[in-house]
Specification:
With 65 residues, the protein is of the alpha+beta class. The chain contains 2 helices and 2 strands; from the N terminus they run αββα. It has helices at residues 19-30, 56-59, and strands at 34-39, 45-50. Strand 1 and strand 2 form a beta hairpin.
Length: 65
């Protein structure tokens, strides 16, 4: 859910709205990438993302040899 944290209580240790992750997800998906996380209860979360590799000659319009 956008703009929400798993712990929405007033006493959580970290502040914020979750907006940064929502923006990151949109940007990464628009670049044909993937974003996700790995989590264990009580251990926090590790966020990751993958972006495709693009050939520079293709990106600049140069002919391939």
């Amino acid at each position: 859910q956008k703009f929400a944290q798993a712990d929405s209580s007033d006493t959580r240790q970290q502040g914020g709205t979750g907006l940064g992750l929502a923006i990151s997800k949109e940007l990464i998906e628009h670049m044909d990438g993937r974003i996700g996380f790995d989590s264990q209860p009580g251990q926090g979360a590790c966020f990751w993302f993958e972006l495709p590799s693009h050939d520079q000659s293709h990106a600049t319009g140069e002919a391939r040899k």
